[in-house]
UniProtKB/TrEMBL annotation, chain A:
Post-translational modification: C-terminal thiocarboxylation occurs in 2 steps, it is first acyl-adenylated (-COAMP) via the hesA/moeB/thiF part of UBA4, then thiocarboxylated (-COSH) via the rhodanese domain of UBA4.
Gene3D superfamilies tied to this protein: 3.10.20.30
Function: Acts as a sulfur carrier required for 2-thiolation of mcm(5)S(2)U at tRNA wobble positions of cytosolic tRNA(Lys), tRNA(Glu) and tRNA(Gln). Serves as sulfur donor in tRNA 2-thiolation reaction by being thiocarboxylated (-COSH) at its C-terminus by the MOCS3 homolog UBA4. The sulfur is then transferred to tRNA to form 2-thiolation of mcm(5)S(2)U. Prior mcm(5) tRNA modification by the elongator complex is required for 2-thiolation. Also acts as a ubiquitin-like protein (UBL) that is covalently conjugated via an isopeptide bond to lysine residues of target proteins such as AHP1.
Name the UniProt record assigns to this protein: Ubiquitin-related modifier 1
Main location, first listed in the record: cytoplasm
Cell location: Cytoplasm
Entry keywords, A to Z: Cytoplasm, Isopeptide bond, tRNA processing, Ubl conjugation pathway
Organism encoding this protein: Piloderma croceum (strain F 1598)
Pathway(s) it belongs to: tRNA modification; 5-methoxycarbonylmethyl-2-thiouridine-tRNA biosynthesis
Start and end residues of each stretch annotated as Disordered: 40-64
Gene Ontology cellular component list: cytosol
Presence of keyword Cytoplasm: yes
From TrEMBL, chain B:
Source species of the chain: Piloderma croceum (strain F 1598)
Residues engaged in binding ATP: G57, A58, S59, D63, I89, G167, D172
Domain tRNA(Ile)-lysidine/2-thiocytidine synthase N-terminal: 53-232
EC number assigned by the record: 2.7.7.-
Pfam families: ATP_bind_3, zn-ribbon_14
CC annotations in GO: cytosolic tRNA wobble base thiouridylase complex; mitochondrion
Protein name from the UniProt record: Cytoplasmic tRNA 2-thiolation protein 1
Length: 135, 357
């Protein structure tokens, strides 16, 4: 299987940008095929067994070498590992976004798109909005 | 997944799932149902009558920004005949309120609604920055809460309005219900779900977003590209509210109707008369004229503590006794300006403004 790079536009708002260098808009490139355990090494070519990153414990962690098409769940881990600057617990909880964070994929509520299982396409735009800040 | 069509118009592509109903609807239908539900909330509770002067409590945050937009839209669409104002309180918090007030000033232009900003400094002679430098970060939310509530009423009095609407949404109200249950505050439990409250001689306060989910408010702001400010108050770690909020969001994730269910259960509490009787009778503050359940209103009590360097005197009984033991209040204590009960002054009467001493 050949691995392409997907270019994605990511936006954080509603106060969430404060966790990401206070920058609302980001462009990231992620591989189209990723480890099934969502481990996010800088180079996707590194075999999963060589990854020494601190991974959350999940049953899939033992499935070394298995892959899947890059989905929103993988993207969240990628953002957490590569862009998040502080307070990881305010972004992710239990393998998904913290309750109270809305996700839009190409301006559509992710609840209509399969949530974390949505398979990313090149040039997708993903927006994360916190509803927990201010009134 | 293939795109689905809107459950309401069957024409356009669905773009959001409503938390209340699970319905999948398009952007246009979402705007329409969201606005119509707020309109229904307003008309069923008979909140307004033509000619009312209504101030929108505007913080620059998402809820009040969406409220200003929706109030303007509905006032025009259904000819409510309301005179709308934006009323903002400047607590004097550098790096927080000064930025959010810039948002409110832009809203004033965007919505073409007159804006009144009233500051803690001009009312109380103290900014929150100054208060925190004296009392520290522990009890500062007590000061801010009391001062903001009174400031809104005083601002409304200077504008001659009889009604303040605030952006409290269904999530906020459900959270308050939970907190009152946790605290065992039965008297507040029924009251906190009321859509409109009015003390004996005070201005009405209403929550037109009582049944509007936070998710939909944020989605509305996002789809309409409304300009709002979203930074946490730098002095408000407010852990208790934080925990109730997280708990509520977890409940909502498991069952989206939980928020409305909690509001309904709060509404279903009927407070029996003997419980009500233990609440104190209302009188007016001897120093400033604001309604109060004691000789001095809460703001005057807090202010006296601040001025006399005993800031906690209004927070604990022991500190209050210590303050009283220090002797009577000095004569030169500040009288908080800009308040006269609307019933006494009439809606259009000029407001007596006393020069700060
Ligand atoms: Zn539709
Ligand atoms: Zn007073």
């Amino acid at each position: 299987m050949s691995t392409l790079l997907l270019s994605l536009k990511i936006e954080f708002s509603g106060g969430l940008e404060l966790l990401f260098s206070n920058q609302r808009s980001h462009r990231v490139q992620i591989p189209s095929i990723v480890p099934i355990d969502n481990s996010t090494s800088p180079s996707a070519a590194v075999p999963a067994s060589d990854i020494s990153m601190d991974l959350p414990t999940s049953p899939q962690s033992t499935d070394t070498g298995k892959t899947k098409a890059a989905d929103i769940t993988y993207l969240m881990y990628y953002l957490r590992d590569h862009l998040l600057k502080e307070r990881v617990e305010l972004f992710m909880e239990g393998g998904t976004v913290r309750p109270g964070i809305l996700v839009l994929i190409n301006d559509t509520d992710w609840e209509l798109e399969g949530e974390g299982e949505y398979i990313l396409k090149d040039r997708d735009e993903v927006v994360f909005i916190s509803t927990l800040h201010g009134g | 997944m293939p795109p689905r069509n809107c459950a309401l118009c069957a024409n356009a592509r669905a773009m959001l799932k409503r938390p209340k109903t699970g319905q999948q609807i398009c952007r246009g239908c979402f705007f329409y149902v969201f606005e119509t539900e707020v309109h229904n909330t307003i008309t069923e509770a008979k909140l307004f009558k033509p000619g009312d002067k209504v101030a929108i409590g505007a913080s620059g945050g998402k809820d009040s920004t969406v409220l200003a937009h929706v109030m303007k839209t509905l006032n025009e669409r259904y000819q409510y005949g309301l005179d709308l104002f934006l009323l903002s309180i400047d607590e004097g918090i550098t790096g927080y309120r000064d930025d959010s007030l810039e948002t409110v000033k832009r809203n004033q232009q965007q919505y073409d609604i007159p804006l009144k900003i009233l500051s803690y400094d001009e009312l109380y002679g103290w900014t929150m920055d100054a208060i925190v430098s004296q009392v520290g970060k522990k009890n500062n939310c007590t000061f801010c809460g009391v001062f903001r509530r009174q400031a809104l009423d005083r601002g409304a009095a200077t504008l001659g309005v009889d009604h303040i609407v605030t952006g409290h949404n269904a999530d906020d109200i459900a959270e308050t219900v939970l907190m009152n249950i946790m605290r065992g505050d039965i008297a507040r439990l029924g009251r906190c779900t009321l859509i409109c409250t009015q003390g004996e001689d005070t201005i009405k306060r209403s929550k037109p977003f009582k049944y509007a989910y936070e998710k939909e408010i944020v989605m509305y702001a996002y789809f309409k590209k409304l300009d709002y400010f979203s930074t946490e108050c730098i002095y408000s770690p407010d852990a208790y509210r934080g925990h109730a909020r997280v708990f509520l969001k977890d409940l909502e994730a498991a069952r989206p109707s939980a928020i409305i269910d909690i509001i309904h259960s709060g509404e279903a509490f009927e407070v029996r008369e003997e419980v009500k009787a233990t609440q104190k009778v209302q009188q007016t503050c001897q120093r400033c004229g604001y309604m109060s359940s004691n000789e001095l209103c809460k703001a005057c009590t807090l202010l006296e503590g601040l001025e006399r360097g005993m800031a906690n005197s209004a927070i604990t009984d022991r500190a209050r006794k210590k303050l009283d033991a220090e002797g009577p209040a000095p004569d030169n204590l500040r009288t908080i300006p800009f308040y006269r009960a609307p019933s006494a002054a009439g809606p259009n009467a000029s407001i007596a403004v006393e020069a700060p001493s």
